[in-house]
Design brief:
CATH topology: Lipocalin
Number of helices: 2
Distance between the termini: 38 Å
CATH superfamily: OPCA outer membrane adhesin/invasin
Helix content: under 10%
Radius of gyration: 20 Å
Low-confidence stretches: 12-21, 48-60
Mean pLDDT: 80
Order of helices and strands: HHEEEEEEEEEEEEEE
Number of domains: 1
Largest sheet: 10 strands, antiparallel, barrel
Strand content: over 45%
Strand order of the largest sheet: 1-3-4-7-8-9-10-12-13-14
Shape: elongated
Number of strands: 14
Structural class: mainly beta
């Protein structure tokens, strides 16, 4: 999906992040929200040993991990229509199965990923907010093979109440406006392009009280990086647009003070 289509989809839905829009709570101009989410996701990408002669890094096959579960904790401070939000996903380990590429077996392995973001937001309306922020995605394939993607992002988040009930729909998403990637290899040479980031989450929520909400939805995230890779053993050159895609069901809770 192109970045223009991604932004158009967010604008069309016009929803605000459930953590912000519905869990506003009682009180004055200042509000403080704590949140936690469990993301039951699978990780797919060009992250295999593949045909690179033993080099750990992007391979010639897309492989998908077993389903993992990452914990995302967040905190938001809001003053009137302005807010600052930060989220952190601690390092989570994933197991990848073996793959057959038609010529040889690509052995499965274990890799880990960690993410964090910091956002400054402004309410355009009571149900719609615009955010500007930074996002870091760190992928560790071994102690000597670490990919660190860093992005500046713009996003929209929103929610819409379902009738007069305590249930609501929510959506939040972001795209990168600039980015860079640092890659550490011990036995490979490469030329990298500019990375691209997209994230979209949406689902249903329930306001148990004015200060406590629960959500259940689906989250999709994609990181792309154009990469020209020279294999150390074969000496061949491969140019690929590497994809790092993570998606799955996500469940959350947020409380506002």
């Amino acid at each position: 999906m192109s970045k223009k289509m991604w932004v158009a989809g967010l604008v069309a839905v016009g929803m605000l992040s459930a953590n912000f829009a519905y869990a506003e709570g009682e009180g004055g101009d200042w509000r403080f929200t704590l949140s936690a989410k469990s993301w039951r996701e699978a990780w797919s990408g060009w992250n295999r040993v593949g045909n690179f002669g033993g080099t750990i890094g992007p391979g010639t096959l897309i492989n998908t991990s077993d389903t993992g579960s990452s914990l995302i904790t967040g905190a938001t401070v809001r003053y009137k229509d302005m807010f600052v939000n930060m989220n952190n996903s601690a390092s989570t380990s994933y197991s990848f199965p073996d793959r057959w590429d038609g010529a040889s077996t690509t052995l499965g392995d274990t890799a880990s990923r960690a993410e964090n973001d910091l956002n400054l937001g402004y309410y355009l309306s009571p149900q719609l907010a615009l955010t500007l922020g930074t996002k870091t995605v760190e992928l560790t394939y071994s102690p000597t093979a670490v990919w660190t993607h860093s992005f500046n992002t713009v996003g929209l988040s929103g929610s819409a109440r379902i009738g007069e009930s305590s249930f609501f729909m929510y959506e939040n998403g972001a795209v990168s406006i600039s980015g860079d990637t640092t890659i550490s290899f011990t036995s490979a040479s490469y030329t990298k392009g500019t990375p691209d980031y997209k994230s979209l989450e949406g689902g249903l929520g329930w306001a148990a009280t004015k200060n406590l909400i629960f959500t259940a939805g689906y989250k999709f995230q994609d990181v792309q990086l154009p990469l020209t890779f020279v294999t150390p053993v074969l000496g061949s050159v491969l140019t690929i647009n590497t994809h790092d895609t993570t998606e799955g069901f996500i469940f959350g809770a947020a409380v506002t003070f």
